[in-house]
């Protein structure tokens, strides 16, 4: 079977809600990572066959085909096509998988998978304001009045015996790992530094704004739960975030034709779906499926990136697969770094590939819980 390779991967540092990236239009933010990933690869941008852009809130400034508009805002020629996709939080991870499938099928040779979400300028839920996305037939089928990721997170916590201390402890570790990664300079190679205008003058945006360098269990414990009797709080859930990210995927023929240096090889592409009510549990079963298809065990995987939409999710995943906590989200996750929805898939892959190479490790696995009970799993081999 034909192979697919990652030759460049980049992300912006996350911006807090109404924070440093507030002045950046989402199209310009996405355009910046497209320009950067092309420049880092060293390829002639005219050779890019397609751009696949993940974005959840395709409304307002992210409407009217944000992927194509990002190409027009970038240094790529306007001859490069694009498509915008939505698989909820897994949108840009699915973009990677679509890009890899295009390359492995032989229909394309150079594809950029990317994602963008400006949650300050296009708030979560903008695209469904005043609408009813679930029909009465769907609600009746599952015996619910609606579907909620918050409800799903609480259901997972109860199912896997997680208490408040456990999820808060996990959240604290996310901040500690992210802070340590910043101090070690581990994010330096993956972040595109942006110029930002502030009331105090121009600054360089190079560090994820959401990291709480002084996080404590006392502070996390003082936060109110979102549901009475529950465990989920704003402190142990992912942060609202502005950001963009991009990964270039190429064929073996493109490696040779353009003299490109691969960072990683894509080993497995898996997507699965299950219960839309508990919803966020699907990464557990998708990982089982991916490992079986790859002929691997969790012990073969050196690092795991499991999106921290809510602390109960990676905790349940770790319990289910029997993984090593020391290999999970080694540089922190979305609780500390932020979760820019449609950009998180390529963001996590960027961090995973760089972390594997920096540590001299081989295999990495990325998974993402997604609205509707869907999950993507991607396994890569660092080169």
Order of helices and strands: EEHEHEHEHHHEEEHEHEHEHHHEE
Oligomeric organization of the protein chains: single chain
Q: Can you say what the CATH homologous superfamily of the domain at 267-382 is?
A: Thiolase/Chalcone synthase
How large is the share of residues in beta strands? 15-25%
Helix content: 25-40%
- The CATH architecture term of the domain at 267-382 is 3-Layer(aba) Sandwich
Average predicted confidence as pLDDT? 97
Top CATH class of the domain at 267-382 = Alpha Beta
Domain Thiolase C-terminal: 260-381
Active site: 89 (acyl-thioester intermediate), 339 (proton acceptor), 369 (proton acceptor)
EC number: 2.3.1.9
Domain Thiolase N-terminal: 5-252
Characterization of the model:
It comes from Sphingomonas hengshuiensis. Helix 1 crosses helix 2 (66-73) and helix 3 crosses helix 12 (344-359). It is built from 12 helices and 13 strands. The chain is of the alpha/beta class and 383 residues long. The chain has a domain at 267-382: Thiolase/Chalcone synthase (Peroxisomal Thiolase, Chain A, domain 1), CATH 3.40.47. The model has no long low-confidence stretch (mean pLDDT 97). Strands 1, 2, 3, 4, 5, 6, 9, 10, 11, 12 and 13 form an 11-stranded mixed beta sheet that branches. A two-stranded antiparallel sheet has the order 7-8.
Task: List the defining traits of the structure above.
EC 2.3.1.9; 12 helices; Thiolase_N; eleven-stranded mixed beta sheet; acetyl-CoA C-acetyltransferase activity; 383 residues; globular; two-stranded antiparallel ribbon; alpha/beta; Acetyl-CoA acetyltransferase; 35% helix; 13 strands; Thiolase_CS; Peroxisomal Thiolase, Chain A, domain 1
